[in-house]
Structures are given as structure tokens and as C-alpha cells.
Design a protein that fits this description.
The chain is an all-alpha fold. It is 75% helix and 0% strand. The protein starts with 10 loop residues before the first helix and ends with a helix.
């Protein structure tokens, strides 16, 4: 900042797009987004549909599923790192009970990205569940009752009534998920 400025034009961008590490990191970021966003949204919607029932103890389940959202990023990462341990990890232990030899989740390049996707889906599905649950509870019961009288089954009612009325909630969750998926540095680090 003390010398005369030297205009570089597009030189820095040219260097950036020739850098193989940068290109690989952009590719991994988009793969992460394509893996984590649909899975966390589907898991959140599935949980919301299950928890929307009037059953005893549902508030406990809501709290348990939301707990990963409010947990410390460092604590979540450390716990999952232990679970992914190649020899002593819980996941590979359960796989060994099934006769499957578990991979080196964080040490193998073809599994590491998907291991992070699993953690992110687990951590975000509670947030998505709460938002979808709010959307589900705003769907008027009269519409479902009318469709039931007309003979519509539960799948038909979901795709004809519930899903269209959840579109604003789904759009909001999609935008928030895209934003948060580009902020995944803490989990990966």
C-alpha cells in the first residue's frame, strides 16, 4: 500500500483457475452441496412427518432430534471423528457385526467427503425438521378432511395438498441449506 499500485488485471484469476488444488476444492464443495442438501432436506421432512403425529412423548423426540443443531461444532466433530475411527469406531464396529469390513472413513479420499456429508446431514436434519414441522402445522386440516372424504389416500393427500403448501418452507430451507453448506469449514477442519 505504500508503493505505486501495479495493475494486474485478470492475472490473479488466471493463476487461480490454473491451480489444480483450487479446482479440486471447488469440485469437492459442489459435491458436498449436492450430497448434503437433498439428504438433509429429505431427512428433515421425513422426521417432521413422523413427529407431526399426536403421540405420547413426541416432545422428547423433537428435542432429541434438534439437539445436534445446538451442539458445539467442535464437540460434534470430535465425537464423529471417534465414531469414524478405522479400528475403534462405532460405525466400523457395527459394520463388522454384519460381516462388512469398514473403510478408513476420514483417511480414504473416496470416503472422506461422504463422511463429512453424513455428519452434516445428521447435524442439519433437526433444523430442517423444525421448519418443516412449522410448515406442516400450518396446513389446514379441512383440506385433508375434504380429500379424505373424496377418497384420497395418504400418499395422494401428501403430494396433492401437503407438498404444494410446503413450497414456501421448502424454498426457505433450500436457500438456508445452500448458504450453510458453503460454510462447512469447521466440520472439515
Amino acid at each position: 500500500g505504500l508503493s505505486t499500485p501495479d495493475f494486474t488485471g485478470w492475472t490473479n484469476y488466471e493463476k487461480l483457475f490454473r491451480d489444480t488444488v483450487f479446482i479440486e476444492s471447488v469440485r469437492n464443495t459442489f459435491l458436498y452441496c449436492l450430497g448434503s442438501i437433498p439428504l438433509s432436506m429429505a431427512a428433515g421432512l421425513g422426521l417432521a412427518l413422523l413427529i407431526n403425529q399426536r403421540i405420547k412423548g413426541v416432545n422428547l423426540f423433537r428435542s432429541l432430534f434438534y439437539l445436534p443443531v445446538i451442539s458445539s461444532q467442535v464437540a460434534v466433530s470430535v465425537v464423529w471423528r471417534w465414531m469414524y475411527h478405522p479400528r475403534y469406531g462405532l460405525i466400523n464396529y457395527f459394520l463388522s457385526l454384519l460381516g462388512v469390513r469398514g473403510p478408513r472413513w476420514l483417511g480414504d479420499p473416496k470416503w472422506a467427503l461422504w463422511a463429512v456429508v453424513i455428519v452434516s446431514v445428521w447435524q442439519q436434519m433437526g433444523y430442517n425438521m423444525v421448519l418443516f414441522l412449522a410448515g406442516l402445522q400450518s396446513v389446514p386440516d379441512e383440506l385433508h378432511e375434504a380429500a379424505l372424504v373424496d377418497g384420497a389416500g395418504s400418499v395422494r393427500r401428501f403430494f396433492s395438498i401437503t407438498w404444494p403448501l410446503l413450497s414456501p418452507t421448502t424454498f426457505f430451507i433450500l436457500i438456508m441449506s445452500i448458504i450453510s453448506s458453503f460454510q462447512v469449514f469447521g466440520t472439515i477442519y
